[in-house]
Design brief:
Blueprint: E1 2-5, H1 10-20, E2 25-27, H2 45-60, E3 64-73, H3 93-104, E4 111-122, E5 125-137, E6 153-155, H4 167-173, H5 175-190
Parallel strand pairs: 1-2, 1-3
Antiparallel strand pairs: 3-4, 4-5, 5-6
The structure holds inosinic acid.
The site of inosinic acid has 16 residues, from strand 3.
Length: 191
């Protein structure tokens, strides 16, 4: 079975291909010659993931899925949320995470979560899958692995940040991996 993953991020594609195994062949946006910017104007992860998968399905009539993720900090009313990629005004992760640290200051209320929503369109019908990783925002950065907000996110039950974990460790508890596993179980049952 072939499935389009609406991403141009080769790293994400390989990571997810390894999770789904050899029965499902993933195609990226460039594999299907989709070179345009897909609109992502929703106010929720669900809306954005849906917008991307529906764009691909409407244009190419191919089975496909899209994901959208971000960080939600409780005492910042869920920010940065859908604005995670550009919270500080640019795509620079350093200034994005610094803004979260600055806004929180010395606050003791530091609970947060990463959330991923995947929208799958299979034979024209949409299915949503969610993955959540609960944790808290550290007072300082720690670790150099991973990307985005990883250096300031300490998952519940751990005393290190995502950026201090190996990719295997992070992938065993991450929001994205949890949502992907739900998608994979669904696909296995649907075949
Ligand atoms: P995307 O929807 O997966 O591209 O994620 C949007 C933004 O959320 C990224 O640019 C990051 O800033 C943030 N983000 C999502 N997942 C992670 C993660 O696993 N670690 C750190 N930051 C993340």
């Amino acid at each position: 079975m072939q499935l389009v993953f609406a991403t141009n991020n080769q790293h994400k594609l390989e990571e997810v291909q390894a999770m789904v195994g050899t029965d499902i062949e993933l195609k990226s946006l460039s594999d299907i010659n989709c070179l345009e910017d897909i609109p992502e104007t929703g106010e929720t992860f669900e809306a954005n993931a849906s917008q991307k998968s529906q764009f691909i399905y409407n244009r190419y009539q191919l089975n496909c899925f899209a994901d959208d993720s971000g960080l939600e900090v409780d005492s910042l009313n869920g920010e940065p949320g859908v604005y995670s990629a550009r919270y500080g005004g640019t795509r620079d992760s350093e200034s994005n995470l610094q803004l979260v640290l600055d806004k929180l200051g010395d606050s003791g209320m530091r609970t947060a979560r990463f959330r991923t929503v995947i929208s799958l369109i299979l034979d024209g019908k949409e299915h949503l899958f969610e993955g959540v990783a609960e944790g808290e925002i550290t007072k300082e950065k720690a670790g150099v692995k991973g990307f985005g907000y990883d250096p300031i996110f300490q998952p519940s039950g751990y005393d290190i940040t995502f950026a201090e974990m190996t990719s295997e460790e992070k992938n065993s508890i991450s929001h994205r991996a949890k949502a992907m596993h739900k998608l994979i179980e669904f696909l296995k049952a649907a075949r």
